[in-house]
Amino acid sequence: MLVTEFLAEHEISQTAEDFPNEIGSTSSLNRDISAENSVELNGPGDTHFDAEQHWEMNYHEAAIFLEEGENNEKFDSHPHNSEALPAYLLVHNRWYYGLDMATSLILLALAFVEEPALPLFKLPVGVHGSIELLALSVIGVELTLKLRWIGWKTILKHKRTMIKCVTLGIMFVEAVTVLVRQSSHFRVTRALRPIFLVDTCHCGGVRRFIRQIFQSLPPILDMMGLLLFFVTIYALLGYFLFSDDPRDQHFTTLHDSFVSMFVLLTTANFPDVMMPSYSRSKWFSIFFVSYLCTVLYVLMNLMLAVVYETFTRIERDKFRKLLLHKRKACQHAFRLLVSKQNPCRMRFKQFEGLMRYYAPKKSPRDVVLMFKELSATGTCSLSLEEFYSVYDAVTLKWEAQFSQIPWFHTTWAPLQTFCQFTHDFVTWKYFEYIVYGLILTNGLAMIFRILEFNDDLQESALSFSASWDTILFVGLFVVEVVLKILGLGITQYFGSGWNIYDFSVTLLSLFGVIILSLAPSFVYVVVLRPLRLLRLFKLKKRYRDVFGTLVLLTPLMCSTAVVMLVLYYFFAIIGMELFAGYDMRNCCVNSTVEDFYKYSANGSTVLGYYYLNNFDNLLTGTITLFELTVVNNWFILMNSYALVVSPWSRAYFMLFYLFTMIVLTIVVASVLEAFRFRIQYKRQTSKREEEQMLHEEVDLKWEEMQAWVQDFQLLERLRADLVVGGTATFIGCRPRNREVLQRRMYRTEIEEWMKEADLTDKLEHGSGGMRDENEERIINYDQIILGGPLTGEGDSYQHAVPIN
Asked: Mind telling me which residue stretches traverse the membrane in this protein (predicted)?
């Protein structure tokens, strides 16, 4: 169907007040347009009314295309008929995003109250079963709505959606079974609940990271195969070398030999595994030394190098694909925003209509400045080449050039004089060195206080964090904050990350002094005073590079943290199903791990607390898995459960180690890649070039703007921000994120990618891929071109209807 027929059969009841921040949530869609009116208009008034409605729907669909390009969503899920739009709009709004996220988190949290669980959190089966069924029903409604605009044929191509559907079906059946039986059963499928969380709108970065993990798997699996080959070879050799020694329990069978060598890969059992044979002959050490040198120091590092190279290539290829995907989205949107009279240029009216849906938080002034920034030729319209930069233009934050004038220039004269003095003082080139001197002196004072520590913790804490010198330095740091705020202004002061850090630490230190003076037993606040010393690391360039890399890595680290939590949740649920309920106290008599599980009612030995490492609930199971991640003595846990449950339980612990090794190897590779990227960027870009890259200057003439802004009400709203009859200059600032830096780093490659894309577009256009002449119908009034259904390639035809 035509986009102009989207609302012919369904009236959308959502208003701008309902969803003010989402595409398709403005009141311009709350009108019922019949299919007949789309074809034939009886009078000039009706014609104008209908044309405005068509434009509004084109703005809406164009904004949807841009959002799909930004989120890297496939265009085959784009709504293309009247039944599709209501469901699409209902699911794609911030309220439903929040509901979807909350439902997913509730499903995950059910593991805390389901059997096995702590008595404090445990809920009856009927309660948590009903909550689970309700949450699954909400997710089922979302999938049903998604089917309305995607269809079964298309959804079969979406592996993630198919997996979600199958998982939902299985869990729904199990939830009903639990409610009917009023008791739980062996449910490892609970470990699949994170699928619903990962599929939410807010976890796009997590999905991209998981995708990178899968893309990096081939080289990892290749190297892992090589590792296991050497482990097997050495296990076989170790079995024939040491199995005849009755004192050596590490190589008694071929199975024990393989497990011992696998654990030795993590060095957790070294040198214990070597000592029985080492006592027989010192030459046996060659076996273990050669194994560790080959497997640990060569192959493991080689695997990291291979993963790093693969990750770097994937990162570059991901940037290229996203850039080209955004370009294709701009093409789709541009077709909906031009007229037949001028099919190669977009007017400001259409650009402003697009921004109402795509960037509703942008002010009219920002929209005008974005249009001016995009218009490289200075004309009253945009070409497709200029429109390609719309994503970059939206990220710009605009300030008037005169906004750099100190904030106090219009205040009371004495206050203005004082603020001017503080401004000159805090911008003095030696002011920062004075602050660094104070911080260093504070550090020396802390060292002296540490040397005075005694056995009384409260007295030591008061001496360290609430003594006269602490109050003195906190007072001086408060004065520094006040001077900077008065001299620079609140906006400029909090525009610096280091200033925000100084303000936070100073405020916390002040609270720490007060809290410790009122409640001396609250000794934990002693950690607040040393935090200010971190500022000293800014002096050295190497540390600045490290901090800069951490900033670039922040989104990736957040995604990594979520992936690790998902991994822990997955294995914790399986561990609870397999190992919950086993009493590990005094469990391993006459074994190599017996001492670690010795328990006495009068108190265990130093080693005898390992029985606490169990899977009796989600909390303890997660802690146990973290201990396995650290790999220190992880084989003790593995061997104990192998003795109590089954020797095959070792597979669970080994698989967990392999999974965490894969994820952490990719994390290390990503950190190395980010650090290399930043160092390379710094070498290729000077400070001046970086400032030019991050800032854009636009001169906006009132007379020029009147030529392309035809809306009188909009002009009136712009009078307060512009110079009527003159020229106003604005500075646009880009965020200093990885994507902006990548555009700088890959500028040569980007030119080549764009040339290849242009050539592909020309070939498609020449073969008729861009338009179907047999299906073209044009609205004569205002010559509006409306978007239609997508082809298999993702290109939209251009449709319209004639007017009598």
From this structure: 220-242, 254-271, 283-308, 433-451, 471-495, 507-528, 549-576, 624-645, 651-675
